[in-house]
Structure formats: structure tokens, C-alpha cells
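Each field is set out as follows.
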Amino acid sequence: MKVLFVFFLVFFTCGSFAGEMVFVEDVGGGACLVQEKPDEMIARVASFNDGVTWNLDSFTMKEIREDLSKKLAEVNVEFNDEEMELFFHCGGYGASLVMNIDMEDFRICVWGEFLKNNSLRVRSIGATRQGGTCNGSIPGQLMIYTTSLEATDKVVEQLKGDKWKNMITHVRKRSEGSILIYLEDQYWFSEKKVILEIEESFSKDMIRFVEPEFFYHPIGEYKNINISF
């Protein structure tokens, strides 16, 4: 641990000018270290759990933007990141970059994974309703909670009918009182339309409520990154 700590201190201070004050902030109870250098448009990140360090700069952000744009294009969603909040997360995954992005019509929550070659890739993309730290809901998946086992069976049977074939690709009974449904790509990030249709088609005697299926990321600590890349 002492060897790693010395290595990280050298990493953080080697680029500093003589007499320059270097501020390093620990995240996750000291499991990670973050240094922001706004004048150089760079944030330096180190994770003791991963045993590696990274530079978060315009090049690595360009990589993850390109990766994100490709993944959204697969479901016919155009990437727009004019307004974006950046966070560093230190927890069970080790080090992660979390992005809350306003896409004009909706917001997305993106978790990026730091790779050992100092690059970034998208770990998950979810929808979110507000700014700030986020986990996000899984695009194209909804959970339906029913009132009884009998209601569950009836709802599953109806959702497999022709009426829903242009919206729903697969229906799976998760438990006696819940159903997981998978939507056609055209309803990714537009799940609200399907939720309203389901709520109008089934009575309260059969369905209690419908909600998105959420991502659950490991517990950890967030740090806001105040650099606009």
C-alpha cells in the first residue's frame, strides 16, 4: 500500500511547477484520489482498488463521446451533450466516470469505465429525470406490478396478444406479482408512452403500477468534476 501511495503522489505532482500548490482530494474514504487542474483542462484520477491511474482530458472524453454516440445511434437516438454534469465515483466498481446529460427531450445517465490503457468506455446508459448524481433506468425495460397471481397471468396473456406486438418484444413473469417487459427499440427513452398505454388498458383491479427497470450500481462516493471538456 505504501508503494502505491508513493506512486500516486509522484503521478499527481510530477507535472507541477516548483512552488505550485497541489491539491489532491480523496474520494471513497481514501480509496481513490482526484486532482483537478482547470488551467490545463485535465483531471487526474487514481484508484487504490484498481492499482492504476488515469488522466481525464479532452482526448479520453472524445473517446467516450464517440462510444456513446455509436450506442445511441443503434436505437436511432442522436447524441447531444450541450449540457452535461460530470462526476467521479469511487466504490465497488473501483473508479467510474458518471455523466448526467441533457438530451433536450430527455436526460440520460451514463456510467463510464476507466480502462488500464488510460481510455474510457461506456458501462451503462440509462434514462434519468433530473440532474445531479444518478443511476438511471434501463432503456426499453418496464416492470409491471400486479394485484394478484391471477392478475399476473391474465396481464401476461394479454400483453402477448397482437395489440402489443408493435410495442413489446418479450414478456416475462418475474414473480407472482411482477412482470418484466422488453420494448421495441423505437420506445427506448420514450417508455412513458408505453406506461400510459398500459395504465389505460388495464384496470386498477389488475395492475398496481408500472415503472422503469432501474440500474443498481455499487454504493460509493461521488465527486463533482468542475472542468468543461
Q: What stands out?
A: The chain has a mean pLDDT of 85. Residues 138-214 form a domain with the Alpha-Beta Plaits fold (CATH 3.30.70.260).
